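USER:
I would value a second opinion on how I read folds in token form. Give me a protein, with the fold worked out from its sequence. Write it directly below this note and I will take it from there.

ASSISTANT:
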Amino acid sequence: MTRNTTTTWGWAAILLHWVGAALIVVLLAHGWWMTHLAPRPERGLNYAWHAAVGYDFLALLIIRLLWRWANPVPALPQDLRPWERYAAQLGHIGLYLLMFAAALSGWALAGTGRTAFRQDLFGVTVPMVYTDRSAHGLLEDTHWTLSYLLAVLVLVHVVGALRHHYVKHNTILRRMLVGVKPANPQERAPERQRA
């Protein structure tokens, strides 16, 4: 099924989630590598590639958010405690805010270097939103900080998903992997499995 229901994610949401997750990992790993290990003569090419992937990630993020607003969000299991529901909501809001903030700060940064990075992976020319070279250092620090905060929150998100799977024994993780429908729409876990 393409669209979400109140109990399952549709294949489109699953695909957007995992492609976005893969791009986040690539951007974080490549960003660290290019600023710490890449040979200096190759850094310009690496920055251009990083910016290109970042532009496409931002486009995917917008599509993903629009899809989320146009579809129901599957309900959380009823056995979750209030703090777990609050943490899940806060975590998802934080992920979206940091994904947008890191991508937008990277876009602004792309126009402030010696060379502006203007193309995405498909060769589409991207307008520069900011070109004041005097702000380069501040934007670089901001992008770096937001990216590391995003990395921490992604790690917390992964740990939370694994906790749902291995400790809570619910379908939160499985339904994002394969769209598994819970046996009971209320998805109430047995008392002995609560954690």
User: Anything to note?
Assistant: Helices lie at 11-36, 43-70, 82-110, 136-166, 172-178. The CA atoms of residues 65 and 96 lie 9 Å apart. The two ends are 32 Å apart (CA to CA).
